[in-house]
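Recap from last week: sequence in, structure out.
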Amino acid sequence: MNTNGVAETYASIAANDKTKPAAKTNRTYGKQIGNPQLSEKAQKYYEQLKKKYSNMDFILVSADQKEAAEANAGKYGSNKSLLVLIDDEKIEKMASDEQYRKKYEGILNNATNQFAQMKEQLGNNADSVKAYGMKFDDNGNASFFAVIDKSLAAQKDRIQQNHDKKAAEKKAADKKAEQKEKQEGIRAKHGRPEDMVTVEASSWDELLQKINETVAMSRSDMVQSQAETYVGQQFDFAI
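Predicted structure tokens:
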């Protein structure tokens, strides 16, 4: 068998195949999830896109990892910038289709102003948000999400309550609170999975409303929990 001839045949097919970008298994595109692949043209466009929207935090996702990336979005984002999850297939199309590109860039343009405005409207509630982000479906529709740490909302109220204590009790209470806050601060850096809540919305106004509702509910739960500690913690619900 002429193995050289077989190798030349496959090389010829690969060289003439224009339907898919050549595999680039060792290439990276900055932050990414999975093993996304971009043609040279799409790679250049993606670099331009990231520079154009440098205030956003782009993560390129391979098509087979889209669902997993969206489910764990809170692990990748922050509350300082807007996380944008976008898959390699969309970048390929944006690089080659002008109308498609204009549609998506129009959404990104709008998001820049809307994100800043929403954070301002959140006020102190913004401190409870661990990450903000947006993603696109296959029909070109954008949706928005926020990952909220319920423990941060409760912690903020506890700090405020400590400041409101009587002067005679303040020194001892603050020392105890400081130790507790230090422990919670370490935990809050990464957050406990059970404290994380992700809210999703189809508009910025809806996202703002859901964040405020979730933070308010978290504080309400904390108040109820404190009240329960005064009446005991063992209940027989089987009666």
